[in-house]
Amino acid sequence: MTRAVAKEGEPNGATAVPEEIKKEEMEERGQWSSKMEFVLSVAGEIIGLGNVWRFPYLCYKNGGGAFLIPYLIFLFTCGIPLFFLETALGQYTSQGGVTAWRKICPIFEGIGYASQVIECYLNIYYIIILSWALFYLFSSFTTVLPWASCNNPWNSDLCVDILNSSRLDNRTLPANATSPMIEFWEKRVLGLTDGIHKLGTVRWELALCLLLSWIICYFCIWKGVKSTGKVVYFTATFPYVMLIILLVRGVTLPGATEGIVFYLKPDISRLADPQVWMDAGTQIFFSYAICQGCLTALGSYNKYTNNCYRDCIMLCFLNSATSFIAGFAIFSVLGFMAREQAVPIAEVAESGPGLAFIAYPMAVTMMPVSQLWSCLFFLMLIFLGLDSQFVCVESMVTAVIDMFPGVFRKKGRRELLILAVAVICYLLGLLLVTEGGMYIFQLFDYYAASGTCLLFLAIFEVICVGWVYGNNNDLTSDFVSVLTGGQGANRFYDNIEDMIGFRPWPLIKICWLVFTPGLCLAVFLFSLIKYTPLKYNNSYVYPPWGYVVGWLMALSSMVCIPLYAIFILLKTKGPLKQRLTQLISPAEDLPQPKKHMAGLSELKRKGWSPLAQEVLSITERETHF
Hints:
Distance between the termini: 19 Å
Largest sheet: 2 strands, antiparallel
Shape: globular
């Protein structure tokens, strides 16, 4: 129901007709039709390729079962608290990834812009993986898999048939011999050049696969939560069917036991290596989609009284359990492959694209009915990546629409906005499907959406909510007491209690105040101290300008937070202390906990008015909010 409100100082109803007409033209923001749509959408976003190709590799590399110790510590102290914070923030404010931060603490609105910058990079490069997977899927519909032999036009004289390599004397092999899987990947799929300085031409097959990926993505989300909520019923559940089939197949292969033991055998001594803890922390941030604005956007479509606390706990455990079980599916197959080739498992273990497009395709060539298992594996990859991609796009679109509702919340505007995003990202993505595009892809992956950027954002998120938010209501406090009182977490707990009817476990609040910022800061500093420049395939060294481009992408998100804080401080009028107080004050129209309503009414009767009104009117006017 819409209602026009006359402006102060004007006769009652003076603006009623124009406002009513204007509001009638705007479409409703929308909500999930059911809780299941929200749960499946979040599950589709967070359960992606990293669960299959990153966690199992990190687990074996960092001490097997011992790696679960730092992983679980980061899960409970950083993963769950931040996951819950972002989801609850969206549900409380009913706003996207930018305006949610503006509503609760205007000076930290830069967090929203930083997350959208990272999301833009993800929208450009993450979908490239889908185009590779589609290429492999289409290539699987042959009588003989094209990467199973060296008898193809793209193979070189150095290619050695891997299926028969165990019968060959290693002394007769060339020193730089390659497998047909590697040559299919580098020569047939990528057409890889010798460096980023030589991009070559666009691989038209990959460009068409990328176009198909964007078309599918567009029609999954073009109607907003109405279409997204229905699509995820299939895209979020189908990968589990594929994973179970591949798991059952994997554990029944000869050599599977050795692979699983290799995956989980604990090596406690590895816990003394700081890199193990670094890997555990960054894996949590990658696999939980933290600091990308996605969780806030998805939570914003919930009903105000939805029990997001229970949902978040359940989704976090589902995500980690999926990663753990995926390790059995992957390492059982790697154990089989190692036995077939009579080599140590460490020689065949890979992560990332190396696992998906070299190691696993190599394994399926050794199985009966290899085309079937190849199709199932790449279908699983496609659906794992697809819902992560379109939910990411939906989150960015939500943020833009909430910033400019007067422009985009009208009939047909959302569809045009999503189309514009898809076209622009597709055209930029063509750079990544050139013959040298893999080098650009690695720059995006290593710098633009790196763990360093996510950790930096996380520190400011918990400082904002835990220490700064909502302190303005105590009129006796000054700005210093705001930064030392830690009342923000208490205020946010009051908001959560108002939504779900009870206060969450106190450990969550303690994490927001102490453990999460402390651990994130430690890992952030360690990532800078131990920084090593990117090398493609551990051999190709980028030119200096390549590293400059990488760091510019990384900094482009992080600088949004301090730059916006300086900008809004300079733009707001009044003495410095008054400006700071205004800029940490939440919006007056946010839902107020019942326990605070009586006290707020009493303050207003005594003549107090919210100091944030002026600065909020400035920022809202700039974005037509």
